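Practice problem 4.
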């Protein structure tokens, strides 16, 4: 280096035998080469890690290719998310698919898309509002009058962490939609399920049942402070207990009952979470593309429980990623399950149960 006009002149990085001030193009390229090589290696490893992570998050896949020609499937909440993808899968297997939805306009759009993509024109929509006891009873009556059989009932619809809303019957919305509506619907449709044996009831729950608690003294948060998360956990625990008690009561009838955790999925179900925590929702929107299942991946365990042969011996079981898993201890309490059944029947005015 040398001083020039009072300035300190440094040699060009990687410079060799050239002049002090003029860089050697060949030497510059040699200096950038290792850096680009390292960047490429890091990028390659990152992409491989992302691919492996996505594969792991996707979870199990239903490998069963069983056809359902001549079978009838009823799916609640079937116009969006995993309900829609479950409808698509079972329609592709040849089943008659009845999509029970609250919004008939969106339901018809989803049904037409499924008809076009599967080539199965036997996909129909029916109106059902699980937040209304009247609607559930009317739907069940119409279904029993018009359908010849019911081979698979999939209790899929749900709400998650919504504000404290009360239904027209005075029930807290999450427990009403996620549990009480499906409890009533299943019981009303049991005659058709029993006449179509072997048949199945598949109830979509969640890993959120862990830590949940059925507060029989205040099911609807009338006296205690409302917590959207606590309410959601209570409703998902109710799903597990209902499925377990249903299996016990139907033992030997030819009707099997299963419940499942579908995984963490990118669907509209979490819209209320973003309402409660908008900043969190914004921060998680990008990572969710990597860390959540797609609806198609999320419906795999539902499809697995619906079509896999030989599951009858595991009726009452809890499934995740297309495999039987152990429910949380609170989800295995048979005394609470029986009490919840009796209280649910009282609330919805159901006198004759299985």
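Answer key:
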């Amino acid at each position: 280096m040398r001083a020039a006009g009072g300035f300190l002149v440094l040699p060009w990085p990687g410079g060799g035998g050239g002049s002090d001030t003029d860089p050697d193009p060949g030497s510059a390229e040699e200096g950038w080469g290792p850096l680009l090589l390292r960047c490429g290696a890091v990028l390659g490893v990152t992409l491989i890690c992302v691919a492996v992570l996505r594969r792991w998050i996707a979870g199990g896949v239903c490998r069963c290719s069983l056809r359902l020609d001549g079978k009838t499937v009823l799916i609640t909440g079937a116009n969006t998310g995993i309900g829609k993808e479950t409808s698509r899968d079972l329609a592709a297997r040849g089943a008659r698919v009845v999509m029970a939805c609250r919004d008939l306009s969106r339901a018809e759009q989803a049904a037409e898309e499924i008809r076009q993509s599967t080539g199965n024109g036997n996909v129909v929509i029916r109106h059902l509002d699980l937040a209304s006891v009247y609607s559930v009873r009317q739907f069940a009556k119409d279904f029993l009058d018009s359908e010849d059989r019911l081979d698979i009932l999939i209790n899929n619809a749900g709400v998650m962490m919504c504000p404290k809303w009360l239904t027209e019957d005075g029930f807290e919305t999450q427990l009403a939609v996620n549990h009480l509506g499906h409890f009533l619907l299943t019981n009303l449709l049991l005659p058709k399920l029993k006449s179509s044996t072997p048949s199945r009831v598949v109830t979509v729950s969640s890993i959120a049942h862990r830590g949940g608690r059925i507060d029989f003294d205040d099911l609807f948060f009338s006296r205690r402070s409302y917590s959207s998360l606590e309410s959601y956990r209570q409703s998902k625990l109710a799903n597990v207990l209902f499925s377990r008690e249903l299996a016990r009561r139907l033992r030997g009838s030819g009707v099997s009952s299963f419940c499942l955790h579908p995984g963490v999925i990118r669907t509209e179900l979490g819209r209320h979470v973003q309402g409660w925590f908008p900043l969190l929702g914004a921060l998680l929107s990008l990572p969710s593309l990597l860390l959540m299942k797609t609806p198609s991946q999320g419906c795999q365990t539902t499809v697995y429980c619906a079509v896999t042969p030989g599951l009858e011996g595991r009726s009452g079981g809890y499934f995740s990623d297309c495999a039987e898993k152990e429910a949380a201890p609170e989800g295995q309490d048979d005394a609470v399950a029986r009490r919840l059944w009796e209280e649910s029947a009282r609330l919805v005015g159901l006198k004759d149960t299985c």
